[in-house]
Amino acid sequence: MADLRLDAALADRGLVRSRSHANTLISAGDVTVDGVVVTKASLKVSPSQQLEVNTLDRFVSRAAHKLVGALDAFTDVAVAGRLAMDVGASTGGFSQVLLERGARKVLAIEVGHDQLAPELYDVDELVLVEGFNARYMTAETLAEATGVAESPDLVVADLSFISLTTVLPALRQSSAPDADFVLLIKPQFEVGRGGVKAGVVTRPEERANAIRLVLDAAWELGLGAAGLINSPIVGSAGNHEYVVWLSATHGKNPTEWIQTTATLTQTGA
Question: Are residue 34 and residue 87 in the same domain, yes or no?
Answer without folding.
Answer: no
